[in-house]
Specification:
heterodimer, A: Beta Polymerase, domain 2, two-stranded parallel sheet, 16% helix, B: Cytochrome-c3 Hydrogenase, chain B
């Protein structure tokens, strides 16, 4: 096994083609990492290949972020893709196993992808004063 | 045939931590399992935006209470790689020793849970009795039993003097004897074999395609162990990945049993070869750059992605834990299994939900 790491930024349009090429090299899908940048999401697909770790990176605009699913190439990608959706609100198109936002039961939806602070919890309404009944 | 959905978890006798499975069953056969996680999601990755990168070692180590030390070690190695810090050789050896002690107590924890899941209570108690002996070494050498707190960026916080090394080696003799007795029961007892053999078989190709890691992958014949990358002191020690070819629950159990003895050997080698010298270097400045760091935890490969922009807070901290990588395999194993085998198959990947809910 080797330690070498490579990182290549590729256009979103070529993602599926490049992932298929990884599959043909018998590479193992190691992880998909989403990072929320100020105006875009950085999605890194890492593969264990014979000469180390190879990563492919695509940049996706934060507004209406969408990427194609790689589930048809790597069946085990569905967890990473659902995680991207549930934590970052990145829409993954064509997911074969879609938990519809229910994989992570987090208190705050899309907690890693939203820039706005979470809405404040509703405060309990003050109870009307009850007049003391005295005899 | 009518289908029924049986909820499994989040609270269940075989689950030490909460994960939920909706088991779709036809009669006694499971046809599908739908997981649901996030019951105790802590958002630790997000916390990196608020904690200083040096202070964050404490958070990384608290991702899990079982492989805590290796979480801290992996985080430190990642920051050291970004900052191009050369860790003193003695610190690398000490990290190896504590990492292997973590592996032994984690595997013993799993063996106990598996014995308990099979209803073999005396074997469960023996496994955890031996685990206590390992935790005693950890406590004597680090001061902690769950959180070691001994790893820091640039090296380690504590050294082991000659007396501590000798005590550890003496204790290891007794632990190895007990380990051989306990693992012989797991490998040879008829009731254990009947409960595990042929249950949940996964071929090497399937395990590779499903992205499996650790003992789950090696039990299917794939000789991949991230320690072979040579991080810490592993590059200077003799070790070969433990593999089996059957790919079933028994093989996964057997790999963990053999890895216990392998870890004893690695600790002896590391203590025998440990060079004299400093155990830490001074760290100044802030990290800038990014790296993906991989190490071998008891449950398999853990992946740390760190991105730093030169400030005291990291830009991104992401952990892909081994349990997360093994979940697709668990779901695959559950398809078509008998309902009675679900607890064994869930346990067989050694799920750590605390890691997954980082």
């Amino acid at each position: 096994m080797k330690q070498e790491q490579t990182l290549e930024v590729i256009p979103l349009a070529s993602l599926l083609e490049r992932v298929r090429a990884m599959r043909q090299r018998n590479a193992r899908l190691v992880q998909i990492c989403a990072t929320a940048m100020p105006d875009q999401f950085e999605l890194t697909y890492s593969f264990d290949v014979e000469d180390g770790l190879a990563s492919l990176r695509v940049m996706v605009p934060r507004e209406d972020a969408r990427v194609p699913s790689i589930h048809a190439v790597y069946g085990c990608a569905f967890l990473y893709e659902n995680e991207m959706h549930d934590l970052f609100h990145v829409m993954v198109e064509g997911m074969a196993v879609d938990f519809h936002g229910n994989l992570y039961n987090t208190a705050v939806k899309y907690a890693f992808g939203e820039t706005k602070p979470p809405a404040a919890k509703p405060q309990p309404q003050p109870q009307p004063a009850v007049a003391a009944s005295g005899n | 045939m009518a289908r029924t959905i049986i909820p499994f978890g989040p609270q269940h006798p075989v689950l030490p931590e909460p994960v939920h499975l909706d088991l779709v069953v036809e009669d006694e056969k499971v046809v599908e399992a739908r997981p649901s996680i996030g019951f105790v999601h802590r958002g630790l990755e997000k916390l990196v935006e608020k904690k200083d990168y040096q202070e964050f070692v404490y958070v990384a180590e608290r991702i899990c209470g079982i492989c805590s030390f290796i979480h801290g070690q992996t985080y430190c190695q990642a920051v050291e790689a970004i900052m191009d810090l050369a860790v003193p050789p003695r610190a690398r050896y000490l990290r190896t020793v504590w990492g292997e002690l973590s592996r032994i107590h984690s595997h013993l924890l799993w063996l106990g849970l598996m014995a308990d899941g099979m209803g073999f209570e005396s074997l469960f108690m023996h496994s955890w009795r031996v685990r206590e002996q390992v935790l005693n070494i950890v406590e004597a050498t680090t001061g902690g039993r769950v959180i070691f707190g001994s790893c820091k960026i640039g090296g380690v916080r504590r050294d082991m003097d000659a007396g501590a090394i000798q005590n550890t080696l003496t204790e290891l003799v007794a632990i190895e004897k007990d380990l051989r007795e306990v693992t012989q029961v797991f490998l040879n007892d008829n009731s254990v074999k009947r409960r595990l053999r042929g249950i949940g078989a996964l071929s090497g190709q399937e395990a590779h395609e499903l992205g499996c890691v650790g003992p789950v992958l090696r039990a299917s014949g794939v000789a991949q162990d991230i320690r072979k990358l040579g991080y810490a002191a592993y590059g200077e020690l003799e070790m070969e990945p433990v593999t089996r070819t059957e790919g079933d629950s028994y093989a996964r159990c057997a790999v963990r049993c053999e890895e216990l003895l392998q870890s004893i050997s690695l600790i002896r080698q590391a203590l025998g070869k440990m060079p004299e010298g400093e155990v830490a270097v001074k760290v100044t400045g802030n990290p800038k750059g990014e790296v993906i760091m991989r190490t071998e935890q008891p449950r398999g490969e853990v992946v740390y992605c760190l991105k730093a922009n030169g400030s005291k807070n990291l830009e991104r901290f992401r952990v892909r834990t081994p349990t997360f990588a093994n979940l697709p395999a668990m779901l695959k194993l559950l398809q078509g299994c008998d309902l009675a085998d679900v607890p064994v198959l869930v346990l067989t990947i050694d799920p750590c939900i605390s890691c997954t809910e980082r």
